[in-house]
Amino acid sequence: MELPKIYNTYFLAIISTVGGMLFGFDISSMSAIIGTDQYVDYFNDPHGIVHGVIGSALAAGSIVGALFAGPFPVFLAEIAKKEKRAWGTQFVPAVVLMVGIPFLPRSPRWLVKVGRVDKAVEVLAHIQAGGRKDDPFVIAEWEEITTILAAEREAPCSGWRRFVKDGMWRRTFAGMSVQAWQQFSGANVFMTYYVVYVSQMAGLTGNINLISSGVQYALFIIFTSIVFFFIDRTGRRRLLIYGAIGMGICQFVVGGVLGSYGSYVKGGVGWNENVIIQVIGAPSRVIIAFSYLLITVYALTLAPVAWVYAAEV
Fold first, then answer.
1. Quick one: how far is CA 171 from the chain centroid?
2. pLDDT digits (tens, 9 = 90+) for 2-26
3. Mean pLDDT within 157-181
4. Coil vs helix vs strand at 252
5. Is 269 helix (H, G, I), strand (E, B) or coil?
6. What is the rounded CA–CA span in Å between residue 166 and residue 94?
7. pTM here?
8. How many Cα neighbours within 13 Å face the side chain of 98?
9. What is the CA radius of gyration of the chain?
10. CA 76 → CA 117, 127, 148, distances in Å?
11. 3-state class (DSSP) for residue 273
12. pLDDT tens, residue by residue, 214-248
């Protein structure tokens, strides 16, 4: 027996993005957890390779999760109205995902691809126009789906070769390299793991240290939302270039201040062997300020633009 399907676009978007929300919750929690006494006691004061392995385990789990979560962005793009295709939505309990998935309809594009044309039109009509098959939105979406599938069938090559043949390797390389350099910029690592340690280097301890990690996530959410109001006017390449330059300056300042004004602490700050440099006074405030500025620049440029650019090329 097939469960009844829910065709509300917002419901479909919420259910489909729950996995990403949970991943975001895990990532944001990590930076706060690594500075707690419970974490240090449970893992027997991890540092060096051991600490790296613990952090890598989260990334390894993300790879496994991505194998299952990969279809959801495609699903969202295929069922949403063009003017309502969401950029993002965050944390709802995992049970929402498990309960909600059976109520999601099949993707219209997939239905057409396997020959279930009538069902595809029915799903499109329910999602786009409350069941009206003659609605202009339904007709436009139907024509787009059939045109794209026809082009795919007539393509001279299929499978992985389509990403490298006839100059397509340039697009593939552009999309992959932008995503790779976004990660190599170090901002995600800083937000996920090192903001607590940098704050400890700057003399912040206890709840103030945890609050400092929360502030940078608030900045990230706020400025990532702002960028979509001007991204089309500014352009993609310009934001990527200026963002990389701005982040480089912030990281240079933080590293320069730590190198110039930092003092080595034997055994680690507060006996934390992951934090062996300490900065006090005005230089410590410079470090905190430019750490926040780093996240702000990242949120306005590389963080959202890399995803948009990769999808468009």
1. 21
2. 666 666 666 666 666 665 666 666 6
3. 78
4. helix
5. strand
6. 43
7. 0.63
8. 3
9. 23
10. 19, 12, 17
11. coil
12. 787 788 878 888 887 888 888 888 888 899 999 99
